[in-house]
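FORM 12-B: Structure-to-Sequence Request
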């Protein structure tokens, strides 16, 4: 059996168990055992099958067994566990993945127990041997990551590492991260319970990581959870702790913000950086860098430079990015994406390591340098950077020659440290200490799953929805209206309309009197192209609050898009009563009349808009077209002349040609038609397609149907220069 076949069969087993098709699962388990030659599990499978057959036999005979549900759940649990064990055993021997490679290596070290590792870790920390402490901690991380089901003795030792307050907090953080990563490969109830214990600790760094690990595990195995009532009990116990709901909500919102990372990266690459590059030569010219004398410095800044920045859209975008950073959006990912090739990042466990000045890579070289010590302390306080990026930045500094490095590092003086501290205090006020730690750790996870050299071997958690609030096991703790609205607003503000819609629909189950709620449902449906659904939601919101101009206009817009101009006109008229001076609505009313072929009434509104809005020319096009449709060709010609002089599009030139043709000015028509083709890069086919759609209107204007093909050929010859 190949590795691919093993994984495929395993997926069929878990799929059958998720669907509670136990017989199918047993059949696939037999296939897996035989194909992978893991016959040591045959007796266990036979035992499970016998138990299930006896249970079904009793049921067929009408015997009521009060233990039946418990037996059935235990069968499911055992089937899941056996399938996990068989897959692990089968792949450990042959799979080239790093997970199984490290598993094979550690299996050779039979005497390396968690108890022994804990003792050694404690000793190294106690004597201050940082290098051995880090080596031991990395070994513990890898051993936990690739471990199978934990024994009670292993669990005790792992708990001791997490709970030991004498050890540096990095030990507990790394153990928790290793448990989380291992659980993504294979489920182990005991590992999850250790995370629950860690989530009750006072150290926020460990507690945040544990809560995130719990949520990711519950999401990964959401279809298994119903057969583990003990997990629900542990979660309920954890939820009794003060602030649990707020912590949960904070993590959910941080994960929603992580979706913005790719968008921000693209904007930086496509908008910000190109604009900076365009602005650069202008600044260089203004600054005259070739004549710059570093010995003649002044504090003033040339106002012209500031004006250049203000005049460009760059300043506005930079301010927007600053606000996003304050909110917690990961704007630094693109900056550090190419700075993860240092040897430090070859070790998997280092991607999860909290940034600490005590790391041996810093202490060995710079223990006597106060400036560099201060930099490390300052970077530790930098709340806007995740741990992984802090390591990247400092390692980048170390690559510089000694003198330039000192110059760069000297910039991190006490003033910079004070600024970072103020920034941290500001963020703590805005997001809270818990929110900052959660955001940094989620960014660390993002970099690992996207940038780790062997990241394709891992299932990218960020490609999943991670809608934790929709998990049945989580919903009871996040189902209050305030929490759901907060999450929905985040989705809405970031344009994740489908996710927001799920929550808004959930809220309407208990609240049918909130017009704003139905407005937002309508808006989400509108933005996902469900116009009929949007209209229904808007109409319901209108029943609840008939005075909302926003709702009325949305209803009118939906009707018009759905090709029901008569109904749209009814609502635009309502809006007009509430806001008679709104010219945008006036022109929309004109459009409705135009679509209803009431051209005379349409012109009244278009002329009204033109009269009242002297600074805009938005009424010119509809006035010109309505004039053409009503036979007022001279009036249409006058407006098309003005339109053509003000950046016309292909349709404008086409309509201008129609007008000239209706006035029997064939040469004028040909001239406009040629320009229309030119504006479409000479593609005659596109022009002809649009032209043919206008034939009914041309016939009404008095053009004979037989003249249409003649005009087309005349146009073709003219384009070739054979006819002027």
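FORM 12-B RESPONSE
SEQUENCE OUT:
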């Amino acid at each position: 059996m190949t590795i691919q076949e093993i994984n495929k069969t395993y997926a069929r087993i878990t799929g059958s168990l998720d669907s509670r098709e136990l017989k199918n699962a047993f059949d696939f388990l037999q296939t897996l055992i035989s194909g992978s030659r893991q016959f040591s599990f045959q007796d266990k499978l036979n035992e499970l099958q016998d138990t299930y057959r006896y249970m079904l036999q009793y049921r067929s005979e009408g015997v009521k067994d009060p233990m039946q549900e418990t037996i059935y759940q235990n069968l499911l649990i055992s089937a899941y566990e056996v399938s996990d064990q068989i897959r692990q055993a089968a792949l450990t021997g042959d799979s080239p993945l790093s997970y199984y490679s490290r598993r094979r290596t550690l299996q050779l070290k039979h005497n390396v127990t968690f108890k022994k590792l804990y003792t050694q870790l404690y000793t190294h920390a106690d004597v201050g041997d940082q290098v051995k402490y880090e080596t031991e901690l990395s070994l513990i991380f890898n051993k936990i990551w690739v471990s199978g089901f934990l024994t009670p003795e292993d669990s005790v030792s792992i708990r001791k590492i997490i709970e030991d307050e004498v050890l540096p907090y990095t030990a507990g953080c790394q153990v928790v991260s290793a448990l989380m990563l291992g659980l993504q490969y294979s489920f182990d109830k005991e590992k999850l319970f250790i995370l629950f214990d860690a989530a009750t600790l006072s150290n926020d760094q460990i507690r945040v990581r544990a809560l995130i690990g719990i949520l990711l595990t519950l999401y990964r195995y959401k279809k298994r959870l119903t057969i583990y009532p003990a997990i629900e009990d542990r979660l309920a116990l954890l939820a009794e702790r003060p602030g649990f709901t707020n912590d949960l909500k904070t993590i959910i919102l941080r994960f929603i913000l992580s979706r913005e990372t790719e968008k921000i990266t693209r904007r930086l690459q496509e908008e910000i950086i190109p604009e900076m590059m365009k602005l650069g030569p202008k600044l260089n010219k203004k600054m005259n860098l070739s004549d710059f004398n570093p010995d003649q410095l002044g504090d003033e800044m040339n106002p012209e430079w500031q004006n250049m920045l203000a005049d460009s859209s760059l300043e506005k975008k930079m301010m927007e990015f600053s606000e996003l950073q304050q909110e917690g959006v990961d704007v630094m990912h693109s900056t550090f994406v190419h700075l993860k090739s240092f040897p430090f990042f070859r070790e998997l466990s280092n991607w999860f390591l909290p940034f600490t000045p005590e790391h041996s890579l810093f202490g060995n070289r710079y223990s006597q340098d106060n400036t560099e010590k201060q930099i490390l302390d300052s970077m530790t306080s930098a709340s806007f950077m995740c741990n992984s990026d802090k390591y990247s930045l400092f390692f980048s500094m170390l690559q510089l020659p000694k003198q330039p490095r000192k110059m760069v590092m000297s910039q991190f003086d006490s003033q910079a440290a004070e600024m970072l501290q103020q920034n941290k205090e500001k963020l703590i006020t805005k997001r809270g200490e818990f929110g900052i730690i959660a955001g940094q750790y989620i960014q660390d996870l993002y970099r690992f799953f996207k940038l780790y050299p062997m990241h394709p071997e891992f299932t990218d958690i960020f490609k999943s929805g991670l809608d934790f609030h929709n998990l049945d096991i989580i919903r009871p703790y996040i189902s209050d209206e305030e929490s759901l609205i907060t999450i929905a607003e985040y989705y809405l503000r970031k344009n994740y309309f489908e996710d927001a819609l799920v929550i808004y629909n959930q809220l309407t189950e208990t609240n049918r009197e909130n017009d704003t709620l139905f407005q937002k449902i309508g808006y989400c449906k509108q933005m996902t192209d469900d116009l009929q659904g949007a209209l229904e939601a808007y109409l319901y919101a209108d029943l609840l609050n008939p005075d909302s101009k926003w709702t009325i206009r949305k209803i009118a817009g939906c009707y018009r898009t759905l090709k029901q101009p008569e109904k749209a006109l009814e609502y635009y008229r309502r809006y007009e009563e509430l806001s008679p001076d709104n010219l945008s609505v006036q022109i929309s009313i004109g459009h409705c009349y135009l679509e209803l072929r009431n051209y005379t009434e349409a012109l009244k509104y278009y002329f009204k808009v033109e009269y009242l809005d002297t600074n805009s020319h938005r009424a010119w096009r509809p006035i010109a077209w309505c004039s053409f449709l009503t036979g007022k060709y001279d009036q249409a010609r006058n407006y098309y002349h003005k339109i053509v002089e003000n950046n016309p599009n292909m349709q404008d030139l086409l309509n201008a040609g129609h007008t000239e043709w209706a006035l029997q000015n064939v040469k004028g028509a040909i001239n406009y038609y040629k320009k229309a083709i030119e504006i479409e890069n000479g593609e005659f086919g596109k022009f002809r397609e649009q032209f043919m759609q206008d034939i009914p209107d041309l016939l009404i204007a008095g053009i004979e149907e037989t003249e249409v093909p003649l005009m087309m050929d005349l146009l073709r010859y003219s384009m070739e220069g054979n006819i002027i």
